[in-house]
Amino acid sequence: MTTSFVYECLDSVDSTNTYLKEHPKLWNQNFYTLRAINQTNGRGRHGRNWFSGKNNLTFSFIFNSLNLFNTLDISSLTIYAGLVLRNALSRISKLPVLIKWPNDITYQNKKLCGILTEMVQIKESKIVIIGIGVNLNTDQIPEELLEKTTSLKDITKKDFSPELVLNEIMNDMVQYLPTYNLPFSESICAEFAANCDRDANLVTLVDKNTKSIIRKKFDILGINEHGLLSVIDENGNHNYINANELEFNQNPKNQNKDTI
């Protein structure tokens, strides 16, 4: 591959995010990218298992633009990276894929791709590791995930080259991720609103004060300049919600397993 980033592929690793966290000698290589053909213990949000599956694309990369870290917010960076990823996958697949706040890419209400963003700091060093899993050519999705998960092969009936898809995604990340900045511009908020998955009802909300779980439904409007989800509840009240307060479409039977 001809790329503007350093790329390595391992046959098997527990988690590409964990591997990069445990190898600080790699941290000075901005956009250093690690792919695993087989990821044995991938992680999703809130400590869930991350189902990787055979014939999928799983990789992580280092983002260490230190000049951004004074204003960096992990949740909003995840959203920004998600927009870059959505655009790349839409171009690659020629499908109207959507971004499901804060970290999934979907097609017709099914998850196609997920992102896990983590900040790591040791002494004076601080980096961000962004993990991406794309359901590419998977044909072994667990039965309990079939209703909410899909793959590009399922949709298009075509096989996709993991190397070519990774190259397309990472070239976009190298080009656009350094332009991340808060507050988001009106054009970024408008782009999210135009491409967000509005059919994903919010059903689980964690009360910030009492830590109790509340069941609610909202209509999704978009995001504000800080990346908070803009919603209207059943009573017509306008609210802003951060990524740590809610879960989408939680299925109690599968609450400890995440797709991708």
Keywords, separated by commas or semicolons:
alpha+beta, 7-stranded mixed β-sheet, single chain, 2 domains, 260 residues, 32% strand, 5 helices, BirA Bifunctional Protein, domain 2, disordered C terminus
Structural description of this entry:
This protein has 260 residues and is α+β, with helices and mostly antiparallel strands. The chain folds into two domains: 189 residues, BirA Bifunctional Protein, domain 2 (2-Layer Sandwich); 50 residues. Helix content is 22%, strand content 32%. The chain has five helices and 16 strands. The protein has a seven-stranded mixed β-sheet with strand order 1-2-5-9-8-7-6. Strands 3-4-16 form a three-stranded mixed β-sheet, with no helix packed on it. α2 crosses α4.
